[in-house]
Amino acid sequence: MNVLVVGGAGYIGSHMVKSLVEAGHATTVFDSLVTGHRDAVHPEAEFIFGDLADRPLLDRLLADGFDGVMHFASFIQVGESVSKPAKYYRNNLYNSLNLLDALAAAGGGRLIFSSTAAIFGDPLRIPIDETHPCTPINPYGRTKWMFEQALADLGETCGIASICLRYFNAAGATPDGSLGERHDPETHLIPLVLQAAARKRPAIEIYGDDYDTPDGTCIRDYVHVDDLCAAHLLALDHLVAGKKSTAFNLGNGQGFSVREVIDTAERVTGRNVPCHTGQRRPGDPPRLVANPSRATSELGWQPQRADLETIIADAWRWECRRP
Predict the structure, then answer these.
(1) Same domain, 153 and 277
(2) Quick one: residue 243, left, alpha or beta (phi over 0 = left, psi -120 to 50 = alpha)?
(3) Within-domain flag for 178
(4) Across-strand partners of 275?
C-alpha cells in the first residue's frame, strides 16, 4: 500500500515508518521537524518537509491519493499543555482539522489517529476499556478527545474511515538500538531512569510514594513501541477490509510501579539509579492500566515485547548508543 505518515520523524512515527518500509509499503513522511528528527526517518521513505497548518501544501500532497494516512503529529507534554494551552489547541486540534479537511477535499480516505489514555482522565475503574467515560483533566487530553469527536462527526459526512488508537505509556526502542526516544525535554519515566543510570542526569525524582499501591508509587501500563506499530498495521488492514470506524485501547493489561521500573532498570543495566522522593504531582492517578481485550479480539493484536525487562533492555541499548 501507499501510506502517508504525518509526524513520521518523531519517536513513535519513525518506528512506524520503519515497520511500514520493512513490510513492503510505499511510505511518505510529512513532518515539520519541530520535535522530530530528520535522521530518524528510514532512508527508503520519501520525506516531505511541511506543517499541518499549511493547507495548500496538504491539498497538493493528498491529491495524489494514499491508501492510508497515519497521524502522529501532536504535541504530547501534559505539563506544557497546562502552561501553554493555546499551543496545544492550535496544533493538536486546529491543525489536525486541516488534515481532515484536506483529506475530505481529496475524496476521503482512511486515517489512523495516534490518541492517548489521557482522554479518560481520572479512572473510575481499572483496567480501562473503551466504554470508560472520557473526562480529560488537562488540555493535552482534551485536544486529543476533541479531535476524536471531530473525526467521528466528519468521518460519516466526508467519507473518512478511521481508527483511534489510545496508547497508555509508549516505551522501548527497536531491538537493534537504531531508533528510540529523544524528546527535548524528556518527560517519560523509562528514558529518564536510563539517563540517570548512564550518568547523563544526576538523579530522577519520584513524585510521591504514599499512593494506595503496593509500594506507594504510581502504577502505569507500559507498551513497547514496536507493539504499537504492529497495532497500526493491523488497524490499517482492518479499514482496508471495509470494517467500520472505531477506537482501541493499547496497553499490555498489566501495570508496573515507578519503583518496579527503577529496580528493573538497575538489574538490566547493572548500575545504580540515583533518585529522591518529592511531592505528588497534581492530577496523577494511582493506577492507569489498559484493558486491551478488544484490540486482541477484533484486530488480532498480541504484544510480543510486553515484558518490562525487554522494554527496558531495548531502551537501554538505544541509550548506550546516544552521545
Answers:
(1) no
(2) beta
(3) no
(4) 204
Cβ neighbors of 297 (< 8 A, separation 6 or more) are: none
d(CA 187, CA 172): 14
Residue-level pLDDT, tens digit, the chain, 323 residues: 999 999 999 999 999 999 999 999 999 999 999 999 999 999 999 999 999 999 999 999 999 889 999 999 999 999 899 999 999 999 999 999 999 999 999 999 999 999 999 999 999 999 999 999 999 999 999 999 999 999 999 888 899 999 999 999 999 999 999 999 999 889 999 999 999 999 999 999 999 999 999 999 999 999 999 999 999 999 999 999 999 999 999 999 999 999 999 999 999 999 999 999 999 887 788 999 999 999 999 999 999 999 999 999 999 999 999 87
* pTM of the shown model: 0.96
Residue 271 in grid coordinates: 548500575
Indicate which residue of 11, 88, 94, 140 is catalytic. Answer: 140
Q: Which structural domain range is residue 303 located in?
A: 189-220+253-321
User: Residue 1: which H helix or E strand, with range?
Assistant: none
140/48 Cα distance (integer angstroms): 26
Question: What CATH number is associated with residue 291?
Answer: 3.90.25.10
Measured N-to-C along each axis, helices 96-105 and 55-63 cross at an angle, to the nearest 10 degrees, of 40
Residues 240 and 305 in one domain: no
* 140 flagged as catalytic: yes
Cell of 45: 521513505
